[in-house]
Amino acid sequence: AQSVTQLDSHVSVSEGTPVLLRCNYSSSYSPSLFWYVQHPNKGLQLLLKYTSAATLVKGINGFEAEFKKSETSFHLTKPSAHMSDAAEYFCVVSDRDGANNLFFGTGTRLTVIP
Amino acid sequence: DTGVSQDPRHKITKRGQNVTFRCDPISEHNRLYWYRQTLGQGPEFLTYFQNEAQLEKSRLLSDRFSAERPKGSFSTLEIQRTEQGDSAMYLCASSAGLAQTQYFGPGTRLLVL
Fold this sequence. Notes:
Chain A has strands at about 5, 10-15, 20, 25, 30-40, 45-50, 55-60, 65-70, 75-80, 85-95, 100-105, 110-114. By secondary structure, chain A is mostly beta strands. In chain A, strands 2, 5, 6, 10, 11 and 12 form a six-stranded mixed beta sheet that branches. Chain A has a four-stranded antiparallel beta sheet with strand order 3-9-8-7, with no helix packed on it. Chain B is mostly beta strands. The N and C termini of chain B lie far apart (about 35 Å).
């Protein structure tokens, strides 16, 4: 079965400092992995996705993530946090069968301190 | 705005009542998904459609939950005899096909009193 574990429920960084949100996955095959962001009162937005091409994936708003098979990790990073990055972030793994269902982690709340 | 829309955005109901939510996917997206998100958790998959066919419904939470997509466009999710434990955000997503990006709507927040 597919699953993801987000290692931190809450991360707090100062504006302008790097962001690291950690995610480990479990999958019996080579997975598709995603990061979604959820701002208050807004829908989930796709940040980036990995689908077995390049292991370093660049997304929107300066975010990127690296797929590391040996560590079963897919951590999300950004060099410099902005106030507008404050939100809930979800690491997601996709089913590989016909449904293509998404399995979400429990989320990491990012706080950016001015 | 051509994104996924959901209606209503908020619903308050009394225990035992039936509720129905609507989702309008992005035009021409043939796949439509329903998820439930409870407080402090990530979204949980419920069911999905390809065009008008419901291809997975084993993860619907109970037989009180049902979904339809009669013409392969909008979809409805109905909860019968609501319980307080049904209080959650119900999310809809659509995609252009298998392995394509799922785009989410803003959700319908349900509160059962």
